[in-house]
Every structure is written in structure tokens, then in C-alpha cells.
Specification:
Blueprint (H helix, E strand, L loop, with lengths): L3 H18 L8 H11 L1 H20 L14 H21 L2 H11 L7 H24 L6 H17 L19 E3 L1 H26 L10 H19 L5 E3 L5 E6 L2 E6 L6 H15 L8 E4 L10 E4 L7 H14 L1 H10 L4 H21 L21 H10 L1 H6 L8
Helix pairs in contact: 1-3, 1-4, 2-5, 2-6, 3-4, 3-6, 3-7, 4-6, 4-8, 6-8, 8-9, 10-11, 11-13, 12-13
Keywords: Membrane, Transmembrane, Transmembrane helix
């Protein structure tokens, strides 16, 4: 086989992974996300590797190929293992090279944690499985034109945890659940999926070797093949019978906190640099409100467990929007009582039409708070009326907020706001 048969897919994998990792060059991402990326990038890279190995092995396994004659030395397990080793070296090297700059960057800049070695090891093992699926399919159907179909088949297999069945993460490299600071991959699941993928890889290579030797159908019915197939079926079936927990909360998550205007602003230790952005936003919003209300005692990043969700505004550190705007939106929504209405709806205390009406009133108030704090350029909705409109109404609104804070906290109908 020509060098291009492995060089071109290797380049495609390297380029695909490099583009997929661009968004991870950001400090808030953290080591858990980087560790998970080592296996989750196989969602697209894995099918390319399978297509390459299918094309390579199907060209060698055709019934009219001289090297595939039963009397040749390169048939059976020897041929399959040689092809698998060559392909795995090329595909795995191409897959891992784009991670080197990311590992160097994270080592130099990350303020908390380190790579999860066993979780990251799922990536190379998953690449081995993707490459191994090529020989078994390519020897069973030695038609190189079907290589793209093999890639589609593996893509659908690796996509299962994301769109259909989370338990499939126990035997494919993709996880299907976000892994960020504050959570860790379930160690039991990590160990199980490593073992399962290694067994699947060995089984597919063994089956490919038998197909390459052109064994008779009755030779496929033996206690060895039956035992291996039984082990595979058992390993794949157990997660569906008892679905595993994909990720676990990191109970040891350290906090980095600052107090401003009586509000504790807390983030995961890995996000402590974001406090320089979060603290001024919270200060400006509390000043716009007039004073700290009783129903706001702290603002927590979502990677930390909130001890009392009723008095804590939670914001998402991971966002495609500017961080300042994301924090302002979350804290202003809490101050305006929008979060309390969401909880009242979820608990069944209010009906949906009541939720819509009360949220609309509070939405205008949240926009006013962000405007007053200089954190938004949105226009107030027409339904806000004259109460929140105009340049000289700040004192009146703040006085009204001081008198109706409990209504906001309890998601009660607002009076005097329109």
C-alpha cells in the first residue's frame, strides 16, 4: 500500500483535532475538560481512523489479491496485526500531536489540578478500537469503495452517548456528559470502559484474523469464539441493565471568595482569576438596587455547590458570551426575582400563565438594574411603563425595591411597578 494511504488520513485527523481544541485554550476550562477532550475528540477522529484502516485492509483482503492467497505468509492474524500496528502508530500519533501545545499551555497557566491520567488514557485506547474496527469490516467486506460507510457506522456508534443512550459511554470513548471544574469522571466507569474497549479491540482483531484466513463457517463455531463473544456481550450489556453514573461531584472543590457590599462572591479555585471581573459586577448591581436585599447573600459560580440556593445567585463561568455580561445577567435576574419565579413554577406553587406574567414584570426590572449599573445597553420593553423610564426615577425605584423586596423573593404579584 502507498504511503498516502496512511499519510492523508493522519493529516486529516491532526487538522480535525487541532480545530476542535482551539476553544480549550482558555483558563476557565480547567484540567477536567482537557482530560475529557482526549477521548471526546474521537467523535470525528475515530471514524476517519476507521475509514483509513478499512480502506487499507480491504485492499489487502480482496479475493483476487495475490498477497491474500491462503499460501501467502501475510494472511490471517499476522497480516491483520501488522496492518493494525502500522495504522495505529500513524493515527494515534496524528491524534495526540495537537494536544501537546494544549498540555504545555495548561501546565504553565492552570492554577488548580492536573490531568486525569486514566480518563485521558481512554483516548488512545478508543483510537485502538476505532482502528481495529477497520480490519474486521474490511476483511468481511473487502470493497474499498465502502470505506466511507464504515466511517458513518463508527460515527453513529460513538455518537450514542450524546444523542441516544448515555450508558453506551461504558464501551465507546465518547462520554456524552460535560466534564468541568467541580466534577470528575466516575473512576469506576473509567476503569470499566478501559477494560471493555480493550476486550472489544482484541475480539475484533481476532475475528478479523479468522476472516483473513478464509476459515470455514464451522470453524467460527467453537468454544473459544463462543467464550469471547459471551464476554463481549456481557461487558456491553451490564451498563444497560445498571446504568452507571457518568460524572461525580468533586466534594473537595476549593473555593476562592471575596466579600463585596455584604455579598460573598465565590468561585472554584481554578477560576479565582475571574473574581477580578465578578466582584465589580456584583458591586455595581447591589449599588443599583440601593442596598443588599435579604434574599441575596452570595453569588456562586456553578462549579461550586450552593449551600442555600434561595439566597444565592448562581452564574455560569463557562459561556460563549462575555463573562461580565453573563454574570450581570444572572445576578440581576436573581435581584429582580426571576429565579424565585422559576423555582415557584417548578414546585407547582404557581401556574405557567402566572409565571409568564410575573417573569415579564421582573424581566424589565432586571434590565433596569443592568442599565443602572452600566452593564447593559438594552432598551426597556414597552410593557415596563413610565415607572422604570426616565432619568430621575432611580431613587423612586430603589425606594420601591426596599419596600417590596419580600414580594420579589417570594414571586408574588408586583404592585406599583407599572
Amino acid at each position: 500500500m502507498p504511503l498516502l494511504s496512511v499519510l492523508l488520513p493522519a493529516v486529516a485527523i491532526a487538522v480535525m483535532v487541532a480545530f476542535g481544541l482551539v476553544g480549550l485554550f482558555d483558563m476557565p476550562v480547567g484540567w477536567p475538560s482537557v482530560s475529557a477532550a482526549v477521548h471526546d475528540q474521537l467523535l470525528l477522529a475515530g471514524p476517519i481512523a476507521t475509514m483509513a484502516s478499512y480502506f487499507y485492509c480491504s485492499n489487502l483482503a480482496g479475493r483476487r489479491v495475490l498477497l491474500a492467497l491462503p499460501t501467502a505468509t501475510r494472511v490471517g492474524h499476522v497480516s491483520v496485526l501488522r496492518s493494525f500496528t502500522l495504522l495505529l502508530i500513524w493515527m494515534l500519533a496524528a491524534y495526540l500531536v495537537p494536544f501537546i501545545p494544549l498540555f504545555v499551555y495548561m501546565t504553565a497557566t492552570a492554577s488548580y489540578g492536573s490531568i486525569d491520567v486514566f480518563a485521558a488514557l481512554t483516548g488512545p485506547v478508543g483510537m485502538g478500537l476505532a482502528v481495529a474496527l477497520g480490519p474486521v469490516l474490511g476483511t468481511a467486506l473487502p470493497y474499498p469503495v465502502l470505506a466511507p460507510a464504515a466511517a458513518v457506522l463508527v460515527f453513529l456508534l460513538f455518537q450514542l452517548p450524546n444523542v441516544a443512550e448515555p450508558a453506551a459511554a461504558a464501551f465507546v470513548p465518547t462520554l456524552g456528559s460535560p466534564v468541568r471544574l467541580g466534577v470528575v469522571e466516575n473512576p469506576v466507569l473509567v476503569a470499566y470502559r478501559l477494560v471493555t474497549m480493550l476486550v472489544l479491540t482484541a475480539f475484533t482483531l481476532g475475528l478479523a484474523g479468522m476472516l483473513a484466513r478464509r476459515v470455514r463457517p464451522n470453524e467460527l463455531v467453537s468454544w473459544r469464539v463462543g467464550g469471547a463473544l459471551g464476554a463481549v456481550v456481557l461487558l456491553v450489556s451490564v451498563p444497560f441493565a445498571s446504568p452507571p453514573r457518568i460524572v461525580l461531584a468533586d466534594d473537595t472543590s476549593p473555593q476562592a471568595c471575596r466579600s463585596v457590599k455584604g455579598v460573598d462572591v465565590c468561585l472554584h479555585q481554578g477560576h479565582r482569576r475571574m473574581l477580578d471581573t465578578a466582584v465589580p459586577v456584583v458591586r455595581a448591581l447591589v449599588e443599583a438596587y440601593g442596598s443588599r436585599p435579604e434574599y441575596l447573600t452570595a453569588a456562586y459560580g456553578s462549579s461550586l455547590p450552593a449551600p442555600d440556593a434561595d439566597t444565592i445567585a448562581e452564574f455560569q463561568p463557562y459561556t460563549t458570551a462575555p463573562l461580565k455580561r453573563a454574570i450581570a445577567s444572572s445576578v440581576a435576574s436573581h435581584l429582580a426575582g426571576i429565579r424565585s419565579c422559576s423555582k415557584a413554577l417548578n414546585s407547582g406553587r404557581i401556574r405557567f400563565h402566572e409565571y409568564e406574567t410575573r417573569s415579564a414584570e421582573r424581566h424589565a426590572l432586571a434590565i433596569w438594574l443592568r442599565q443602572r449599573a452600566g452593564l447593559a445597553d438594552e432598551r426597556l420593553p414597552a410593557s415596563a411603563g413610565e415607572f422604570l423610564d426616565g432619568a430621575n426615577t432611580a431613587r423612586a425605584v430603589q425606594a420601591w425595591l426596599a419596600a417590596h423586596g419580600q414580594q420579589l423573593a417570594d414571586c408574588e404579584p408586583l404592585q406599583g411597578a407599572a
